[in-house]
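2024-03-11 09:14:02 INFO worker-7 job=invfold-0412 stage=load source=structure_tokens
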């Protein structure tokens, strides 16, 4: 899926992605399904990785690949069981973050379509 390179700039750049991902991880921290999946006690580094990835995907700085190499996200999720329950929990947390992002409806929809598709494609378990 390729997205317009200007989405990042159009929505206001770094602060928007910071807010979105910080809000998402607030939800993750309180989620009984997702929280146990995260190996580190500190969710901060995971927050930075997701933020860098999303910024890069939407046309912002390429810091994610500079630091982490090729995303290969399905492979990176292989150690974690991602079934329908985990996918729905992830999307629930993201929905809160997207709803509170302050983006206009068109950008919100565009972002949400992508996140739903991406979450679906990360599923690696039937249960
Ligand atoms: C990493 C869970 C979907 C992007 C992780 C980690 C977990 C996780 C447990 C390890 C934390 C870390 O050390 O970074 C899940 C679950 C999902 C999901 C349960 C449910 C579908 C997604 C989606 C995206 C994404 C849809 C992208 C749009 C990332 C990125 C990393 C990551 C960029 C860090 C990869 C790295 O560089 O090591 N995820 N994830 N995840 N996830 Fe997900």
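2024-03-11 09:14:09 INFO worker-7 stage=emit residues=127
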């Amino acid at each position: 899926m390729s997205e317009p390179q200007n989405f990042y700039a159009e929505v206001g750049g770094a602060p928007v992605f910071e807010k979105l991902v910080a809000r998402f991880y607030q939800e993750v921290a309180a989620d009984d399904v997702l929280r146990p999946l995260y190996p580190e006690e500190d969710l901060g580094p995971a927050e930075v990785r997701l933020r860098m990835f999303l910024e890069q995907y939407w046309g912002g700085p390429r810091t994610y690949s500079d630091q982490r190499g090729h995303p290969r996200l399905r492979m990176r999720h292989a150690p974690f069981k991602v079934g329908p329950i985990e996918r729905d929990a992830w999307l629930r947390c993201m929905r809160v973050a997207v709803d509170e992002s302050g983006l206009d409806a068109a950008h919100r929809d565009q972002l949400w379509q992508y996140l739903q598709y991406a979450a679906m494609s990360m599923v690696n378990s039937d249960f």
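2024-03-11 09:14:09 INFO worker-7 stage=report msg="The helical segments are 7-11, 14-29, 44-57, 63-68, 73-77, 84-99, 105-121."
2024-03-11 09:14:10 INFO worker-7 job finished
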